[in-house]
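User: For my dataset I need records formatted as: sequence, then structure tokens, nothing else. Please produce one.
Assistant:
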Amino acid sequence: MTEILQKHKVGITFFEIHGTGRTPRAAPEVVQSYMTGRSSVPEFVKRYEVKSIVPESSKEEIVDDLLNSFSPSSEPYGVVFIKDVSDAYELGTKLSGNQVLALK
């Protein structure tokens, strides 16, 4: 996914998160505490959240590339949310609009 966003020269922010979703877990991960010796299966799975704000003119092409990036043998996972952003301002440079979204 990040390769596609980099190809379109848009900024990317990602976070390591823990959550649940529709993607089934292959095998439960067992975590063992070294202090108590107890084993447990975490309720949440480690995932990555990727955020990118792109120009309206690039939205369709980026979504198409993301949808077509999965091979027939792999199971695609994840969700793409499309939200309108009325404007953007970069405080340090005083740039605004699409100029803020363009990587230098």
